[in-house]
């Protein structure tokens, strides 16, 4: 059983966010096994929950419009993908609700079992047990269900990083204790993803690790040095794998390869261009006839064609709101574990959405990452829903500042009366000047 982190000197993230926390009157860091605060609101962030539900509902609609042609041709049922996405959406929202009801502090006891289980699933994929699709063995078939361990690896790594960073506190600034172990674990997961191969997920894992280390207060020099090494390794992984290098060259010269390797990104850009400011109308897009797998990784292109620049702007705003509310939950979390957990999960949503949109716009080469909550697929939707549920639970544990009203407060000279802090809080709330010494 891993040891519980003790309450000691506040960690870097709490020092960095100290002014914000003092402004809203929150308590200092508490142990990971602490019970919910007596002042916790007990209700989840409704804006965050509504944003996730809206994205899931929008995903069901756009998957239907994007997949109708392929479903009719391939399965002779225009609603083939719609029916499955509705089931995934129902299961995902159910899992999100269930996860939001479980105190996130219980996760620290499951950190290493979850990490080991996901690692074993990744090893099973590269050992030949994975189900191939699109040239990569990324799925494990468990009966009728296909599980993608790379999606689970992102959440598992965030949970472990949050636990480890919260436990090490100020020692995160050291190389041997605070930096190297996190880089090694992330590197193992990245190598297993690359072996499938899944270059996009490996990049997301690296970005998650660096972001959480930066927030925790790791030395910037260590992060910059590791970033240079990671960039060099990534360049080598592209240059010395023929299919990746050819895809990269096709992306650089997309007009010359629009009929072969760059066909998909070229058609995606055409979708955005034909949408204009307001789009052609929901269900009226024509690129579903030409864009392969439009309902999965390139679903944003269909949004751009049918809803235009306005629709893409609203979609980006929804993801920005999702990340902002997640960061808000991190700032208000009652302990370091919750703060790091919320930051990591928010970063995961933001990075995946940003990379997917950049690929759909041909700003980046094709990566194979889904658009969170919107793209078709059970593994991505279910895992992201569980992550959103954990984020909602962190938001529900945010303690509210205690209020002292004149009608209920005892006089200062009586036992149990309000102290100077409570008097100041009540005076500021009522508009009166603070009491002077």
Descriptive overview:
With 437 residues, the chain is an all-alpha fold. It folds into two domains: 12-28 and 38-396, no CATH class; 406-437, no CATH class. It has helices at residues 12-16, 18-23, 46-75, 80-100, 111-129, 149-168, 175-195, 199-216, 220-239, 242-252, 263-275, 299-331, 336-360, 378-396, 420-430; strands at residues 131-133, 136-142, 145-147. It has a three-stranded antiparallel beta sheet, covered by helices on one side. A hairpin with a 2-residue loop joins strand 2 and strand 3. Helix 6 runs parallel beside helix 14 and helix 8 (199-216) packs antiparallel against helix 9. The longest helix is centred in the last third of the chain and has 33 residues, at 299-331. The model is unreliable at 1-14, 16-40 and 401-437 (pLDDT under 50).
Q: How widely separated are the two ends?
A: 51 Å
Secondary-structure element pattern, one letter each: HHHHHEEEHHHHHHHHHH
Strand content: under 5%
Alpha-carbon Rg, integer = 24 Å
Oligomer: single chain
Please give the share of residues in helix.
55-70%
Give the number of helices. Answer: 15
Shape: globular
Number of extended strands: 3
Strand order of the main beta sheet, please? 1-2-3
Low-confidence stretches: 1-14, 16-40, 401-437
Number of domains: 2
Supply the key terms.
437 residues, mainly alpha, globular, disordered C terminus
Describe the SSE topology:
Layout: H1 12-16, H2 18-23, H3 46-75, H4 80-100, H5 111-129, E1 131-133, E2 136-142, E3 145-147, H6 149-168, H7 175-195, H8 199-216, H9 220-239, H10 242-252, H11 263-275, H12 299-331, H13 336-360, H14 378-396, H15 420-430
Helix pairs in contact: 3-4, 3-12, 3-14, 4-14, 5-6, 5-7, 6-7, 6-8, 6-13, 6-14, 7-8, 8-9, 8-13, 11-12, 12-13, 12-14, 13-14
